């Protein structure tokens, strides 16, 4: 049984023994030094596992000068030793080969004089390595998130403002990063599209965690508009549910797509124009006839006026429909009924149909729901599909245009009795420049697919050779 643990006052010897064992087994290096008669620092103690490892134990170096023992010792470290002897507690880092140590020096003061200094060194190679790795990870994160070309943000699900916004995102909107922290997603979207953002936020609040991708028009600090695409995911940040989002500027891409869309539209309008000119010439001829008749008879004929007005109305309708379609695009998505859009398109395509000996038959389910859309773009899709259907029947026939509801989608269908599409060609539909027509562009379906995709919808095709094809557009109920 050892004294000191189980009662009884421990003896001095016990203390000495115990201290020696402790010091020898310290994981660190513990040492002491003092000035000798010549004013040089000499070691008085050097113990611990590190001391043993380097062969610097007390029995080997006691009484030896510091410089002699620590030959590699730099000037800086000698200054530290001096300073400690002046009464300062110091801490410094030093390296030995690949290994790094931290050392604390603390003076022992007796009667106002430093008589000795106690030092303790610990190896921190591993900690340094981890620090470096952490720093590297931080740099990697910085280049990934801070210096990247995409905008990145984090926002709590239940809070208005952002928690984090990277520099690129601030730049996209023309604000500083600090300014951005005071804003919320809603403030960065054109007013017409704020509803989409709000809908999304309420979905998130209700716990919907599915990733969301959509495009919107961002409002910059100077009032200009950028076209952006966002990809969002719900995660948690500091323990609270949060949304992390990635933003990409798609203004250029959109501009290029828009050019293709416009040129396809112009080509369609150009092709329809011949029929429309014809359509306008007929009522004009009859108007002229009536006017001549009235002129020669010089008397009032009520029924002539009636016909004249209705002919003028028809011209007006056709012309205005053309103008609406060709007008520069209104960017905002609005809630619209599809039936009036179809009716407008049918007016335009009717002469084209008559020239192909095609009848357009409509069947609309009563009160179909409205959709969120960019009206002119949807009209362009309908016009493409209707025109394709008409052109698929060189010998005439019927095109059935229908609107119905299927759950949360509105289905707009175009069914023809035309040539159909061979199965091996179905996959090529929507490829740019794929056309089987002499003066086709092969862009109509590509543009249509893209427009419908941007509306969150789909286009599907079923077809049988020599029997006909059905194109169905599905759009989410607005
Ligand atoms: P374009 O009408 O200028 O040829 P589209 O992209 O509109 O270009 O159509 C591409 C091709 O798809 C057409 O040339 C035709 O071969 C085929 N196609 C499209 N719609 C139909 C349809 N209703 N019936 C048969 N073939 C069709
Ligand atoms: Mg076409």
From TrEMBL:
<dbReference type="GO" id="GO:0005524">
    <property type="term" value="F:ATP binding"/>
</dbReference>
<dbReference type="InterPro" id="IPR000014">
    <property type="entry name" value="PAS"/>
</dbReference>
<feature type="coiled-coil region">
    <location>
        <begin position="120"/>
        <end position="147"/>
    </location>
</feature>
<dbReference type="InterPro" id="IPR005467">
    <property type="entry name" value="His_kinase_dom"/>
</dbReference>
<feature type="domain" description="Histidine kinase">
    <location>
        <begin position="275"/>
        <end position="478"/>
    </location>
</feature>
<keyword id="KW-0597">Phosphoprotein</keyword>
<dbReference type="GO" id="GO:0030435">
    <property type="term" value="P:sporulation resulting in formation of a cellular spore"/>
</dbReference>
<dbReference type="InterPro" id="IPR003594">
    <property type="entry name" value="HATPase_dom"/>
</dbReference>
<dbReference type="Pfam" id="PF08448">
    <property type="entry name" value="PAS_4"/>
</dbReference>
<dbReference type="InterPro" id="IPR000700">
    <property type="entry name" value="PAS-assoc_C"/>
</dbReference>
<feature type="domain" description="PAC">
    <location>
        <begin position="212"/>
        <end position="262"/>
    </location>
</feature>
<keyword id="KW-0175">Coiled coil</keyword>
<keyword id="KW-0749">Sporulation</keyword>
<keyword id="KW-0902">Two-component regulatory system</keyword>
<dbReference type="Pfam" id="PF00512">
    <property type="entry name" value="HisKA"/>
</dbReference>
<dbReference type="InterPro" id="IPR036097">
    <property type="entry name" value="HisK_dim/P_sf"/>
</dbReference>
<keyword id="KW-0808">Transferase</keyword>
<keyword id="KW-0418">Kinase</keyword>
<dbReference type="GO" id="GO:0000155">
    <property type="term" value="F:phosphorelay sensor kinase activity"/>
</dbReference>
<dbReference type="InterPro" id="IPR013767">
    <property type="entry name" value="PAS_fold"/>
</dbReference>
<dbReference type="Pfam" id="PF02518">
    <property type="entry name" value="HATPase_c"/>
</dbReference>
<dbReference type="Pfam" id="PF00989">
    <property type="entry name" value="PAS"/>
</dbReference>
<protein>
    <recommendedName>
        <fullName>histidine kinase</fullName>
        <ecNumber>2.7.13.3</ecNumber>
    </recommendedName>
</protein>
<feature type="domain" description="PAS">
    <location>
        <begin position="137"/>
        <end position="208"/>
    </location>
</feature>
<dbReference type="InterPro" id="IPR003661">
    <property type="entry name" value="HisK_dim/P_dom"/>
</dbReference>
<dbReference type="GO" id="GO:0006355">
    <property type="term" value="P:regulation of DNA-templated transcription"/>
</dbReference>
<dbReference type="InterPro" id="IPR004358">
    <property type="entry name" value="Sig_transdc_His_kin-like_C"/>
</dbReference>
<dbReference type="InterPro" id="IPR035965">
    <property type="entry name" value="PAS-like_dom_sf"/>
</dbReference>
<dbReference type="InterPro" id="IPR036890">
    <property type="entry name" value="HATPase_C_sf"/>
</dbReference>
<feature type="domain" description="PAC">
    <location>
        <begin position="83"/>
        <end position="136"/>
    </location>
</feature>
<keyword id="KW-0547">Nucleotide-binding</keyword>
<dbReference type="InterPro" id="IPR013656">
    <property type="entry name" value="PAS_4"/>
</dbReference>
<keyword id="KW-0067">ATP-binding</keyword>
């Amino acid at each position: 049984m050892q004294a000191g643990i189980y009662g009884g006052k421990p003896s001095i010897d016990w203390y000495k023994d115990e201290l020696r064992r402790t010091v020898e087994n310290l994981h660190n290096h513990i040492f002491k030094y003092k000035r000798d008669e010549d004013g040089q620092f000499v070691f008085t103690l050097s113990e611990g596992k590190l001391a043993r490892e380097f062969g610097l134990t007390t029995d080997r170096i006691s009484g030896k000068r510091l410089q002699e023992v620590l030959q590699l010792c730099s000037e800086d470290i000698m200054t530290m030793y001096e300073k400690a002897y002046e009464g300062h507690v110091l801490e410094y880092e030093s390296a030995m080969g690949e290994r790094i140590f931290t050392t604390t020096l603390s003076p022992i003061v007796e009667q106002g004089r430093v008589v000795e200094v106690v030092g303790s060194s610990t190896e921190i190679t591993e900690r340094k390595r981890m620090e470096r790795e952490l720093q590297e990870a931080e740099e990697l994160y910085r280049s990934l998130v801070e210096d990247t070309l995409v905008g990145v943000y984090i926002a709590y699900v239940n809070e208005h403002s952002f928690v984090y916004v990277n520099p690129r995102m601030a730049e996209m909107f023309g604000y500083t990063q600090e300014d951005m922290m005071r804003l919320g997603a809603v403030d960065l979207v054109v007013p017409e599209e704020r509803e989409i953002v709000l809908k999304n936020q309420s979905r998130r609040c209700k716990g919907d965690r599915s990733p969301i991708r959509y495009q919107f028009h961002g409002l910059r600090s100077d009032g200009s508009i950028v076209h952006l695409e966002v990809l969002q995911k719900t995660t948690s940040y500091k323990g609270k549910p949060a949304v992390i989002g990635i933003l990409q500027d798609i203004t250029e891409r959109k501009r290029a797509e828009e050019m293709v869309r416009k040129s396809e539209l112009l080509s369609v309008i150009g092709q329809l124009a011949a029929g429309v000119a014809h359509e306008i010439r007929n009522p004009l001829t009859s108007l002229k006839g009536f006017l001549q008749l009235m002129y020669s008879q010089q008397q009032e004929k009520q029924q002539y006026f009636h016909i004249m007005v209705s002919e003028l109305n028809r011209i007006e309708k056709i012309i205005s429909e053309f103008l609406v379609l060709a007008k520069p695009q209104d960017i905002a998505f609005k809630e619209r009924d599809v039936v009036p859009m179809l009716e407008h398109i049918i007016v335009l395509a009717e002469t084209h149909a008559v020239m192909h000996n095609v009848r357009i038959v409509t069947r609309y389910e009563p009160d179909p729901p409205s959709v969120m859309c960019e009206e002119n773009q949807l009209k362009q899709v309908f016009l493409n599909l209707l025109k394709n259907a008409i052109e698929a029947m060189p010998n005439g026939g019927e095109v059935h245009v229908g609107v119905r509801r299927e759950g949360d989608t509105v289905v707009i269908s175009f069914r023809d009795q035309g040539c159909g599409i061979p199965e091996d060609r179905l996959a090529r539909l929507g490829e740019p420049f794929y056309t089987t027509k002499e003066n086709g562009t092969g862009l109509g379906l590509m543009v249509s697919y893209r427009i419908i995709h941007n509306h969150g919808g789909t286009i599907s095709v079923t077809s049988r050779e020599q029997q006909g094809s059905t194109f169905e557009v599905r759009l989410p109920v607005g």
